[in-house]
Amino acid sequence: MDDALTADLTRPDALNPEALGFMCGLEVHQQLATGKLHSRQPGVLYDVTIDSVPDAWPRFARRLRAARGEGGTVDVAARFEAKRNRSFVYVQTPNAGLVELDEQPPVAMDADAVDIALTVAALLDARPVPLVQTMRKTVVDGSNTSGFQRTSLMATAGMLETDDGPVGVDVLCLEEDSARKLDTVDHATGQTVIYNLDRLGLPLIEIATAPDVQSPEHAKSTAIALGRVLRQTRRVRRGLGSIRQDLNVSIACGDRVEIKGCQDLGWIPTIVRLEMVRQLHFFRLANQLRAGLNLPSLPEDRRLDDDVCETEVAAAVAKRYALDLHDVTAAFNDTVSGMVEQAFTNGAVMLALPLPGMHGLLGTKTFDEQGAQLPRLGRELAGAAKLAGVKGIFHSDELPAYGISALEVDAVRAQLQLASDDGFVLCCAPLWQASLALEAVLNRARAAFHRIQKEVRNVVVKKGAPDDGTTAPMRPLPGGSRMYPETDVPPHAVTAEQWADVLARLPMDDQARADRLSTTEASSDQAQQLLARELDDVYMEHASSLPHKAWASLLLTHDDEDPLLLVNVLTLRAQDMVARDHVETLVEAFRGLSPTVEALQAHVEANGLGPVDVGDLAAIVNGIVAERLDFVQERGMGAMGPLMGVVMQAAQGADGKEVSTLLRAAIQAAVE
Fold first, then answer.
1. What is the DSSP letter of 13?
2. What are the two backbone dihedrals, phi and then psi, of residue 309, each rounded to the nearest 5 degrees?
3. At what angle do helices 111-123 and 216-232 cross, to 10 degrees?
4. Nearest CA-CA partner of 449 in 254, 287, 280
5. Is cis: bond before 400, omega within 30 of 0?
6. Going by fewer Cβ within 10 Å, which terminus of the chain is more open, N or C?
């Protein structure tokens, strides 16, 4: 497998997935359009920020700790989160009750959510489990007030058809969504994270595919196909954040990494290829670092790893790279670096960690042919440090820079007694935080001697969009220790009768929906929009009693309104009880309401929104033509355009088509 050693990392699009032992699967999380999963609270989301949270919404402060899993051990991801010295404040929204606050036991799963999950399972040809056991999945980042997420395995062994070939579906779960983060506040001893509880407990379908994805482009088509299946139900939420795709990516010389934050499907191929580049780079770097300590090289395929050898390497690396922190604050007493000076003012210290033999291996910022940052160890070390809450670190390969002078760098090297090939890392933060950050840096530096870490990473996003497709570490990849049974929720039996009922009610596929719309008089463009915006069911429900094109137009224009309002307004229009030009006025007057036809009619009569009497309209048209007879005789039918506006202004509420017909006849009579 020479590609692992020779592939050009500056050309990610040229990488050969098959030659590199590429493996990839997807995890898709889709919010359902129901109430909350275990509390019967409504599934409302409130568009608030930390600055606009109403004062009347209560707040509750909590601290969390990691619990042991069913096997008696604390999950690695939970142990990591427990070290971050964070407390949490929860804003109780109107749709968050005692269950969301973890003050009351949960109730059984929402029946609609179960039905939707089973429907999606059937669409994926998956097999439902006969007895659904809700589990607790340890989560101690504060996004769940209870310290765990409830999740239930619903079905297994499905199959998804994609444009690039079939992909197996390993599991389909029904689980609770997490709370939304509003803000993070730093203080002297740690951090406080503020969460909004409106999203906590919303039901999510989680679909995990088998590692059958053959290429980065196939990953994109798989995500598109999964989204299409979910939308077939017409019972899932839409909009930003309602569906989230995670990517599990590995190559033979690397290992499995879970990448979160892939919101824009167009970015998926780039994100996957850049992860391949990252794994290649750190495989090569690991062997370069090992060579410097006369340690055996890593094989090009992780399946050939020798556990005994790796244990010996880890012991040698730990001996060489000890946790040796130095306070070098005095070296920066006269600093001209604004960020360092400001940090000192706020009580920070400057700690240093020596990295023997790593000078020149930490790297500086370089880019591939598409402008994405190439991987480097210094960036990985910074990512590890940031998980402790610091803004970043300084490392020796990039200094002097950021206002740190060469004299200050030399002073640090002298205090640490470094050789010319030694590197170091600096962290400027409160003592507790700098110590934690540099401990994370050291662990990351030690890990660089081994195969790429199994971990969860996040796409780097700036200003709402991916920066360049690269990723940063979030937390270790969780293991089996994080899961244990939920004793407060009884098991749910999926009976043969329930499954048969689901199979009998499967929703139509896209082609069947398009064929159904083709039987109406809606234009092809209207039909396409109705399908794309998932309005075809609402449209067809009322199409038999309304003019098709007008109904499609009104529904597409006001798809956020209660359909009953639109149906009743259009019913009045079809009965010629409201003027065409006042249809929008009537909709706006009752926005957010569901009035009866009688209530709408009363409003029309009270506000003069009805159509103008045809006899009166003819008199108005003839009068205007007579007043402008010279103009009409000079321009002929060219007077139509100018006089239309005059008539419409004089006969407000008149139907434009009727005005056009009467005006044309009056002009023709005047010029004959």
1. G
2. -60, -45
3. 130
4. 287
5. yes
6. C
Closest CA to 301 of 20, 504, 512, 63: 20
Considering only 186-195, 412-421, 489-498, which range has the smallest mean pLDDT?
186-195
Chain centroid to CA 225: how far? 17
Question: 388 is written with which tokens?
Answer: 């402790």
H helices within 200-349, ranges in order?
216-232, 268-292, 307-320, 338-345
| CA separation for the pair 165, 222 (Å, rounded) | 9
Strand pairing class (455-462; 257-260) = parallel
pTM here is 0.83
Is the separation of the CB atoms in 35 and 109 below 8 Å? no
pLDDT one-digit tens code per residue, 483-530: 788 889 999 999 999 999 999 999 999 899 999 999 999 999 999 999
Query: Domain 319-449 in CATH: superfamily?
Result: GAD-like domain (3.30.1360.30)
Where are the domains positioned within the chain? 3-292, 319-449, 614-671
Two tokens at 467?
């920066």
Provide the H-helix boundaries in 293-373: 307-320, 338-345
How far is residue 653's CA from residue 630's CA, in Å, rounded to a whole number? 28
| N residues, the chain | 672
Tell me the per-residue pLDDT of 428-441, one tens digit each, with 9 for 90 and over: 999 988 998 999 99
Rounded to whole angstroms, the Cα distance separating 600 from 596 reads 6
Burial of 188 (0-12, 13-18, 19+ CB in 10 A): exposed
Q: Where are the alpha helices (DSSP H) in 460-522?
A: 496-504, 510-517
Q: Do the beta carbons of residue 284 and residue 251 sit within 8 Å?
A: no
DSSP 65-91: -----TTSS--HHHHHHHTT-EEEEEE
Q: How far apart are CA 508 and CA 395, in angstroms?
A: 58
